[in-house]
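TL;DR need structure tokens for one chain.
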Amino acid sequence: MIIYSIKDLEKLSGVKAHTLRIWEKRYGIIQPKRTQTNIRYYLDEDLKQILNIAFLNKKGYRISKIAALSNKEIRQKVAEYTEINSSFEDYQLDALTLCVLELNESKFSKILDKYITQKGFLHVMNHVIYPLLDKLGMMWMSGSIKSVHEHFVSNVVRRKTINAIDRIKESRNEVNNPKFLIYLPEGENHELSLLYLHYILKEKGMRVVNVGIGIPLDDVIDGCRISKPDFVFTMVNDSLSNKDLEKYIDQLTSRVGNAEVLLSGMQVIQLNQTDNANYQAFKGTKQLIDFVDNLLKVQITA
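>> reply
TL;DR here they are.
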């Protein structure tokens, strides 16, 4: 059983602890349990209730009106809005969070699909998925969600991303654009980041060979020999020591033929670049996107 302090509820719901106490005293919306030493604590159901109330409050419902509703009626109101609302505001993160807590794939997928149709996949990734993942990461650290919740989100977003990649139409000019071989090395499993990069590259007209995650170096070299990419990209976050990373980079850059090696990830950022001038390191996706945009400009003017 997970228990929360009022400060935990504040962090997870975005509602100030002072406001939560007013809701409790004035409206009796939530009733905390108490330890033998009279310290307040809250349970999972209390967190879900606060998220529902915060959602309706952000939609314009007065707290006094919400307080007059039963728990069942509150849940029904939230369900109505998440079913029919085609726009996306900050409060929808609460709706998505509730879907995650309940493992409600149908509603989670429906909310995302509506917003993807309205704003586009790239916007949804930057302004919905990543903020949601940040929020869930905070909840995971507090013990509010379990591994199954993380797997649930990753699985749904993975499918959405692959579907978005498959929907991109190839242009006739793409055959002349640079080719990227992308992968994650052994010990790295951040597949969503790799798929997101795949989407960005393909959406910009790049040719992409995605050989997947957990790929041994010898397989990467075989992939380069067969596909002859212009660039090889990978990310290293937590799988190698600095010494092993330097060795890995040396082996990679010396065996990929004429391809230029592009690297990112926390370990790469923290590594002081050696005398090896055969690779470029990027601090984040923004830098890599700028790099690709510059490639396109060169391609156009060439």
